[in-house]
Amino acid sequence: MSDSDTPGSTLKIKSLGLSDPLHRYLVDHGTPPDEILLELTSETREKVGIMAAMQIAPEQGAFLTFMTRLIGARRAIEVGTFTGYSALCIARGLPEDGELICCDVSEEWTDIGRPYWERAGVAHKIDLRIAPALETLAALPSDRSFDLAFIDAKKSEYKDYLERLIGLIRPGGLILVDNVLWMGQVVDDDQRSDDTVAIRAFNDAVARDERFDRVMVAISDGITMLRVR
Fold first, then answer.
1. Helices (DSSP H) in the chain: which residue ranges?
2. What was the pLDDT predicted at 129?
3. Element containing residue 174 per DSSP (H, E)
4. For residues 87 and 102, is the Cβ–Cβ distance under 8 A?
């Protein structure tokens, strides 16, 4: 594997404060991406260009599979699927009869991931719904039967996604939220883009929200972990 093919070289901007060699070391000493995930990363980069930076980093993928298995999740929701890397990782952590509902608005991007879901043997677990995520979430029964959610979509809607998920995730279930450190811009007062302001506001609200046990971890671009009380 050449340097250009290493997992750490494709999305190095996602891993704050790590040099390329240290990032490669971190990935290699966890559960590194297999051939299917590496090929999905490569095809994503080829087909969507600079937008490939939206794909989660390899250590995040391993983390998603780990956490899904750790809590014994059977039903999960993903808000923002892109080309399917995170969905594949979550689905791998589910049992054979598990279910992952994926919310996205782009058939073009999600179609890139579908063949890889098939190759990985997890396509039967994935229910992809092409529609605005808030509409998909609103249509789900509020029976709190889901165990896990992963939010990685429109930053200005993070608060709204979270509110919809409250009625869907069981007590003791997990909600994982990506990009909460936003390339370090959350602590730079000169950064006032709409996404930066939205993520700051979301982070501040969550920090005061007693409906959750909460921790922010510096994995890649930052993940907030919320355990529903």
1. 7-10, 20-28, 35-48, 58-70, 85-93, 107-120, 133-139, 158-166, 194-207
2. 98
3. strand 169-178
4. yes
Range of the domain at 70: 3-228
pLDDT of residue 2: 31
Q: For residue 101, is it left (φ>0), alpha (ψ between -120 and 50) or beta?
A: beta
Number of structural domains (the chain) is 1
How far is Cα 113 from Cα 173, in angstroms, rounded to an integer? Answer: 26
CA 147/CA 116 separation, integer angstroms: 24
What CATH number is given to the structural domain containing 202? Answer: 3.40.50.150
Those residues whose C-beta lies under 8 Å from the C-beta of residue 26, and which sit 6 or more positions away, are: 8, 15, 18, 59
pLDDT digits (tens, 9 = 90+) for 155-200: 999 999 999 999 999 999 999 999 999 999 999 999 999 999 999 9
CB-CB contact of 216 with 224 (8 Å)? yes
